[in-house]
């Protein structure tokens, strides 16, 4: 009988090579400013929030509420908070137009951004009243926790920019602060995803074909 060690050895080598090839990319990468983020992303789309006229805000509802701008859905959830969801215009903020989650007696401010399709790059500006951390959770399970400046006003001085080799289609922002605001939402593609490279698939297919041939030869010689 032929020894089995060569087969096990080949399988082990193929497995190591395949896993190495499929995990050759880093996962999530963060950027400190829009210029560096946009340099890593192609096909960037930036969503413009409309500026409400007097009384300078749109109220979308409490708990679960949503609005769609440029094919992107922005929403809050009553599973996270019973707070209010607004578009606050420049006449109210005396600055930029922002989407704002606030006024909760239970839970924390939250805004989910649901994109038209899968992307690998996402960016926005955000702000809080009291300077609490903000958690950004991607639909692929990756997350980033960033500090906020805490201006006590409806300004968005802080920046989130991420790329990820695993595509995602939504980003949930949450914070234990009184108020969470965001604007300048942008998204695009890095052209790099965490799927096996063609060379990895070719290696695996070639190795498996060799193993099948080896098995047939063993069967005929038995």
Characterization of this structure:
The protein has 222 residues and is α+β, with helices and mostly antiparallel strands. The protein has 2 domains: 23-189, Sandwich (Jelly Rolls), CATH 2.60.120; 196-222. 23% of the residues lie in helices and 41% in strands. It contains 4 helices and 12 strands; from the N terminus they run αβαβββββαββββββα. The chain has helices at 5-22, 34-39, 90-93, 198-221, and strands at 28-31, 42-46, 57-62, 65-69, 72-76, 84-88, 98-102, 110-128, 134-138, 143-146, 158-174, 179-189. Strands 1, 2, 3, 4, 5, 6, 7, 8, 9, 10, 11 and 12 form a 12-stranded antiparallel sheet that branches. A hairpin with a 2-residue loop joins strand 4 and strand 5. Helix 1 (5-22) runs antiparallel to helix 4. The longest helix is centred in the last third of the chain and has 24 residues, at 198-221.
Overall number of strands:
12
- Indicate the multimeric state: single chain
State mean pLDDT (0 to 100 scale): 84
What is the CATH class of the largest domain? Mainly Beta
Class of secondary structure makeup: alpha+beta
Shape: globular
SSE pattern: HEHEEEEEHEEEEEEH
Number of helices: 4
The main pleated sheet reads as: 12 strands, antiparallel
Query: How many domain units?
Result: 2
CATH architecture of the largest domain: Sandwich
CATH topology of the largest domain: Jelly Rolls
Query: What are the low-pLDDT stretches, counting only 5+ consecutive residues below 50?
Result: 1-5, 7-25, 195-212
What Rg is obtained from the alpha carbons, in whole angstroms? 24 Å
Short précis:
By secondary structure, this protein is α+β, with helices and mostly antiparallel strands.
């Amino acid at each position: 009988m032929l020894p089995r060690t060569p087969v096990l050895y080949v399988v082990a080598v193929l497995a190591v090579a395949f896993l190495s090839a499929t995990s050759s990319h880093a996962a999530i990468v963060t950027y400190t400013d829009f210029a560096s983020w946009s340099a890593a992303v192609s096909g960037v789309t930036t969503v413009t929030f409309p500026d409400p006229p007097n009384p300078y805000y749109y109220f979308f509802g409490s708990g679960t509420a949503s609005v769609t701008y440029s094919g992107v859905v922005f929403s809050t959830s009553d599973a996270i908070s019973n707070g209010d969801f607004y578009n606050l215009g420049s006449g109210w903020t005396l600055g930029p137009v922002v989407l704002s989650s606030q006024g909760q007696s239970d839970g924390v401010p939250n805004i989910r951004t649901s994109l038209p399709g899968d992307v690998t790059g996402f960016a926005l500006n955000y702000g809080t009243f009291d300077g609490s951390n903000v958690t950004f959770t991607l639909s692929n399970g990756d997350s980033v926790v960033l500090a906020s400046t805490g201006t006590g006003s409806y300004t968005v001085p802080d920046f989130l920019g991420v790329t990820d080799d695993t595509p995602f289609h939504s980003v949930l922002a949450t914070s234990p602060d009184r108020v969470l605001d965001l604007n300048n939402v942008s998204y695009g593609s890095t052209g790099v995803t965490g799927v096996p490279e063609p060379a990895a698939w070719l290696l695996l297919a070639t190795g498996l074909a060799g193993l099948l041939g080896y098995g047939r030869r063993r069967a005929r010689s038995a």
